[in-house]
Amino acid sequence: MPGVTRRINRLRFATPYLILISVCCFGCEEAQPTSPLQVEATPTEAVSVPQTDVKNTTKPNVMPKFNPLTPEEALVILDKGTERPGVGEYTTKKDPGTYICRQCNAPLYHSESKFESHCGWPSFDDKIAGAVDRHTDADGRRIEIVCHNCGGHLGHVFEGEQFTPKNTRHCVNSISMRFVPQGEELPPMIQAESD
Ligand SMILES: [Zn+2]
To answer: Is the pTM of this model over 0.85?
Structure first.
C-alpha cells in the first residue's frame, strides 16, 4: 500500500511545521507589546475649589426702598386690586390736608379736590400736577391711574359724569393713599430710582 505510506510520511513531515506555526501565532499574541500611547493613569485627587464667601456677599439692592406694604396694601397697590366699596378709611373724609402715596409718599391729591360721589370710594376731580399717570386698563375700557413716581395702583379715572365743573372723577382706593392733615409736615417722597 504505497499510497497510504506516502500520506503518513507527508503528515510526519508536516506536523513539526504546523506546531511551529501555531506556537508562533500564539506567542505573537502573548508577546504583543504595550502600546506606546497608553499612558499611566494619574491618581485621582480631590480638587479643592475655592469657595466664595456667601455670608459676606451683599446683593446690590436695585429696588427703591419704598415704604413696606401690608399684604392688603400690596394686593391693591402692586396687584391692582380694588378695595370693597364703602370700607376705605378716607371715603367720607372731609378734613383739610393732603393725600400722599402710601408706597412712596408722593403728594397726589389736595383735600380741596375731594368731593362726595357716593360711589363708595374717595373721589377727586383733580390731581396734584404731574403726580398721577393714566393707563388704559387691561380690560381696554377703563382708565387706570397710578402714582407717577412709583407706579403704584391708585384706582380709575372717569370723565363726563357731571359730578363737578371739572367733570372728572379720580376714583381712588383709600388703601393706596395716606392722609396728612393740614399743618402737618409731609414725609419726604421716596424717589423711584432711574435706570
Ligand atoms: Zn407712589
So the answer is: no
